[in-house]
Structures are given as structure tokens and as C-alpha cells.
Sequence to fold (183 residues):
Amino acid sequence: MNEKNIIDQNIVDERDNDQDFVLGEEHPLKAESRRDERFVAFHLIYALDRFDYTVSLDDLIQDFKDGFNLDVDAESFAYQLAHGVVEQRDLLDEGIKPFLKNWKLERLGCCTRLILRMALWELRQPDAIVSIVINEAVELAKAFAEKDSYKFINGILDEICKTIEKKAENKIEDEDEPKTPLA
Fold:
């Protein structure tokens, strides 16, 4: 056997020994971590965007299940994230626009725009951990968006977070000030 055949045989042997490699009807794929769920949500949102939102999320999930044996439960984070971003996309876009200095939302690449929407939706959730949301958005950008767009996304999200923190601090200060009755 030559070296290539030995390598090919080793790959086949590993496949035979790996129970997770061959997935059948009884073993649907499931996202096992928040990162996996974000990746699944990104794929769902991307597909919906490419269909100009003419397909329902539930129909798309069924297509993913039929085509890729991917199970996305309606209670999962992936579903909640995709649903939230799709339903609030116009509101999210309005939240992003003020931070696009010298850019228009329409000029952003599709993946960059979708990742910003996802991150902003997640940042608006009460249990969001800012550093994780930004890091995950950067990782999504490295995997799917245009070259170096992860730097752009990191900068935009950093500015958004600073603004959110400043508003929260101002709100706390306003609540601490004594209220005077109107004369």
C-alpha cells in the first residue's frame, strides 16, 4: 500500500469507529452549546434574508430538518434568537444606523448586517453578558462575513455597549435625585 492508500484507509477506519459520524433518522443533529446555537440561528436568519423573508421560520426549520437532519426546538436559544431578529429586524436596523459613521446600512455586506442585528438583539436581552455577545459576534464574522469585517463589527458593538452603559448610568442618577413637586 502506498502512503495515500494508508491515509485513506485510516480515515475509513476512524469513520467506522465513530458512532457520531454517521447520522440517521434516529440521530438528528442538535446544537450542543450557545455558540452552536448562534451558528444555527445565523444560518436560519441568512436563509430567511436570502428569501426576502417570504418563507416562515417554521417552514425553514422543517426544511433544515428534512435536508440536514437538524433539529431546532421552538424553545431553543437558536429559535428564540432567529425569531427575535427576524421579527425585530427593522427596529434593530434603526438601533444600528446611528453607529455607522460614514456608512449606510444598505452598503454593509449581508453577513455583517445580519451579525450586527443578532448581536444587538442579544444585547437587549436582560441576561446578556456583553463580553460574550461581542466575542461571539466577532467569531461569527470571522467564520461567515467579509474579510476583516470582524474588526468593524467589534468597533460598532463596542460603541453600542458604551452608549447602553451611559444611558443606564444616567437613568440611575436620575432615579437617585430627589423629586421636587411642580410649583
